[in-house]
Amino acid sequence: MSTDTSRSAQVIEDYKRHKLASCALHRINDLIRGFEAERTIDRRLAQLGFILVLALIAASAYFLMNTDRLILF
User: Fold this and answer.
1) pTM, 2 dp
2) 64 and 70 in contact (C-beta within 8 Å)?
């Protein structure tokens, strides 16, 4: 009888460990998905900023080329 009880306790402990590991794995996967989403947003913002900087440089070059004289402050 004690072997059945100890076997049952072992099965219960194994089940608890399995559920805990499964829960931890799901939590880690959720965190990774969150980091990947933030990385995607950061990449889009960086691309937008790069395009904005290029547009400002192009506008500055256009205005500098169309002026007759250069005024330095």
Assistant:
1) 0.60
2) yes
